[in-house]
């Protein structure tokens, strides 16, 4: 999807739908999740977070037409990119390598 989007302009969030807010909320929780996992010596906290984030993204992807809505393309691509970065980092912390494509 990121390759298909091509060049995008800097993003601005004018209207954010419920699916987008769920991703934003989930991404915001990542630092606290990592801290809690470290404090409790419990990597399963990160694993559960990664699963929840992937499910949240799947819901977003299934309900939001990212590439066909040029007015919202920039910030939606930013959400996708941010989600990919956080999932990749969560998997890295668990000793796993994230696939480049799905």
Describe the 3D structure.
The protein is mainly α and 102 residues long. It has a single domain (17-93), classed as Isoleucyl-tRNA Synthetase, Domain 1 (Orthogonal Bundle). It has helices at residues 2-5, 18-28, 30-40, 44-63, 73-93. The model has no long low-confidence stretch (mean pLDDT 87).
User: Into how many domains do the coordinates divide?
Assistant: 1
Helix content, binned percent: 55-70%
Q: Determine the CATH superfamily.
A: Isoleucyl-tRNA Synthetase, Domain 1
Name given to the CATH architecture: Orthogonal Bundle
CATH topology: Isoleucyl-tRNA Synthetase, Domain 1
Mean pLDDT: 87
Describe the structure in brief.
The chain has 5 helices and no strands. The chain is mainly α. The protein has a single domain, classed as Orthogonal Bundle (Isoleucyl-tRNA Synthetase, Domain 1).
